[in-house]
Give the backbone structure.
Amino acid sequence: MNKRRGFLVIGMLLSLAACRGQAPQALGTLEWDRVTLPAPASERIVRIDVREGQQVAAGAPLMQLELTYAQSQLAALQGQAAQSTAALSELHNGPRSEDIAQARAALGAAQAQAREAQAYYARLQPLGTRQLVAASELDRARAAAQSAQADAGRAEAALAELLHGSRIEQVAQGEAALASAQANVSAQAVLLGKLALVAPRAGRVDSLPYKLGDQPAQGSPLAVLLVGEAPYARVYLPQALRNRLQVGDALQVQLQGDAATQVYPGRIRMIRSEPVFTPYFALTGQDAERLSYLAEISLGKEAATLPVGAPLKVLDDGRR
């Protein structure tokens, strides 16, 4: 029994030694560049024009969101822009001749009342000197004359304001209000156009998370497209390989479990400078070999038919 246990322990040690002696491997998956189309607004899906896995051209319709609310908002903003346009035109044209005539008439009436009040006060002054009228009556006459004179001055200022027309600052404010209203109309028109979802690039529909009649929240992914002429390999390089590889190096990848052992040439297009797992400062000695660095390897068109997400490995000849 003890002999059998000893053989078992020796076998385990040999297995561990063999594992430690294995060459480092870079494993990963096959991926495509993805384009995600978010919902521009929380509107109900009223039409879906594609299916998952379908190849689409740039500009091809994907789905349609409900337009009713966005169209009513656009109409309201267009009304505000028209109102701002009319207000600016009024500022440029200045007051109407009828308003000026009304202001002149008001000034004439105010001046007539001022003359009448001043004359009445002038007639009371000698009587007040001889104390033939009460002092309070004389004070009221003087106050009425001063008030009528002030009303005449106010009417004269109102007429002058109409004759001078709009101020430069008022015109500038009107122009700014019109520009803001027109910008709001343009923004709403752009949003209305986005409710008809189209493919920004040629590609293959990978995912349609929502169904006909759903009302996704704003920003939710409505469609995911796989774009580009060829896929790429997303792999994790161990520390030993990371030290020998750099962007631009040529490599070969192979699907794991591929009985035909077909290999696909590629070229490294990106290597992260930071490890994706345990930070380097927490490792010492042989533990540093556990570090892994995310890398992307561009593949050729011969890999375009491979399934997305297929596991693969990097073939390294060890000569670097």
User: Anything to note?
Assistant: The helical segments are 2-20, 68-93, 97-129, 135-164, 168-194, 239-242. The chain has a mean pLDDT of 83. The longest helix spans residues 97-129. The first strand starts at residue 27 and ends at 38.
